[in-house]
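ok here's Methyltransferase type 11 domain-containing protein, seq below lol
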Amino acid sequence: MGQKSNSMLFKSLQRSRYKIFVLALLSCTILVTLYHGGSIPVNPAPTGHQHGLGWDSTSPDIFSSKAKPLPSVLVDKEIERGIYGGAGDKAHLGGFTELDLGGISPSVWSTMIRYVGVKSLVDLGCGKGVSTSWFLAHGVDATCAEGSHDAVTQSLLPPSKIVEHDFTRGPWWPDKTVDAVWCVEFSEHVQRQYIQNYATVFKKAAVVFVSHSNWGGWHHAEVHDDRWWILKYESFGLRYSQALTDLVRRKAKEDSGHQTPMDDKDGKPKKYTAEHVAYRMLVFLNPEVAGRAEHQHLFAEPGCYEKKGEMEWYSERGGLNYDCGGLTSQGKTNPKEKVEALPQAYMPLKLTREMDEEWELLIFGRTSDQAAQSRSQSAGGQSDDGV
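and the structure came out like this:
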């Protein structure tokens, strides 16, 4: 009888201890819940890397930290490069030429400003700064990022607009987000183990304009078709835009065959080809940046309807628009319009012929008008000699 009573007492004590343990655990849970604002955090995401390229511990936080440029390491042994620049650079750098007319497209650049609304930009793999200089001359806050020290020493740009960085040494990104990245004749030169190092630049931009190559060339380490690049860049969170890609390629084809102010060695006008842009450029959106308040001026198509017609970019609805509160295509105000004008910050930059001439003088040494006049005089002189 005594043994039975002792056994029951022991079991009772065990149940009491269990209840006390459960109550203590419950009390701790309630305290934790109150401390976290009424909800229990489950599998919280790692802090410090929410805005990098992934959730792993090696991804840089590109939105709250600054990148340190890492210039290329020069070599003593000279490398035979043929027509390509890069003296003193390592083999993976260089690859630029004196003037690549296949990557120049003023029609695309003006569309980027007038339609897309670009006001700030990083020119990634900018070489000597030919395209960067166009954007600067037309009022864009542009920065040139280049890995070749040889290209930087020959740059057309002021030093304050150049960042010298070799992406095989690590990532770099601009301090602030930008409206766009312009990246031509660059991606094919950077092998895939380093792509994540320049993807940080793309991730700081709202819209990315990037070309690729379909053939060989100096250090062409990644030659693929459109599909491969779309998959690769979308893996970083970018979204491919077929509409903008089609627009850019169509605009580039408008430049193809147009005369530049420069003549070849035979005295004949050199012509824009723009083939890198017309056939191999892809355009991506980055929602993480494009959705920010400071980039809401992008996509600057006028908003007030004027009349039936075809827009110069795209208009599936068959209508022409004008800027609300402004003048129609006839240079008149619309008395029926009751819509207020947009704030000036939402308006695209104004482009002028003087801006074009400033850039032409820098790149070609004369303007298109001066070239046309000179050619006309030469043609007249040849005709007189033949009479």
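fwiw The chain has eleven helices and eleven strands. kinda neat tbh
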